[in-house]
Amino acid sequence: MITKAILTGGGHATRLRPITTTINKHLIPLANKPMIFYAIDKMVEIGVKEIFINTNPCETELQKHIGDGGHWGIKIQYFEQTGGPQGIAHVVSLAREMVGDEPFIFYLSDNITLGSLKPLAEKFDKENLNCLLSFSKVDDPTRFGVGEFDANGKLTRVLEKPMNPPSNLAQTGIYFYDKTFFEAYSQIQKSARGEYEISDINTWLIQNNYRVGWSEITGYWKDSGKPNDLLIANQMLLDQLDRGHFTNHAAVEPGARLEGNIKIGHGTKIGEKVLIRGPVIIGENCVLEDCYVGPYTTIGHGTEIYSAEIEHSIIFENADINCSIRIVDSIIGKNASILTGHQAPPKGHKMVLGDHTFIEI
Hints:
This protein has helices spanning about 35-45, 60-65, 90-95, 95-100, 120-125, 180-185, 200-205, 225-240, and strands at about 5-10, 30, 35, 50-55, 75-80, 105, 110-115, 130-135, 145-150, 155-160, 170-175, 210-215, 220-225, 250, 255-260, 260-265, 270, 275, 280, 285-290, 290-295, 295-300, 305, 310, 315, 320, 325-330, 330, 335-340, 350, 350-355, 360.
């Protein structure tokens, strides 16, 4: 049984800027919960008792939000990614003393999967594997580590971001290993892009006749590397929540219309000219007046919205939206302000706004 896990918490997520200029990617809220919390939940579900999270040098925000694991009844420790970015295999190598000789799961915390990892953990144990990889069919394999298979479906190697992918099966960022990982790490070299590739670890294990298994994830899985990926993940997470999750603790004025699955936190005020159609999650101490909030929208604590229409968007905490505008497919950062400047044309606006952004429309 696997009781130890390594999670990623570092990196700079340049494809998500400006959002990630002032927030660690792994703390971006999906369904109003930090992304990395879903990774921790997955680990706890399969029986992990100790989690080791890598961080950027001088990182403090992850530790503040996650703590020592007491919330989940486990132990969480942090280790810095020293020496600069050298690939995710290098991240695992830095946790060598923490995991010792025990098997472990390595999980990329910016991956969102809705299915349980229990079947993978059970396969790893039952088949006494040295390594278990999970793959998922993707439209653009050139962004991932891609599996190459022989005519009998046997995995023969894994290629990192190949120009001519041998298949459309991409590594999902869920890896089970025993201590042979570290033997493989000692044998590989940096790739042409200057990184220790996890794909090279897996290929070395395969070609040196270690027991490497694989499974295909057929349910929802998303690598949330781009803004639209976050919006899709937010939508899927809202869809999979059961009705019992959607509770209303707001002060709702007569005349307001709340339709569908809606969760609203304590201290929030909903005015009489408000229409909300779920699934929607609204945090605590928010104010909504004369506005429409449509499906697949999440709103962080302390946000105020007046006169706007918002759908399929992620609004961080303490945002101020006060104008007659229709916002769709957007991500609005903490403390961002969107205020009326002049008459805007009657059409939707797409935005990705960083923290403390100010816009007049």
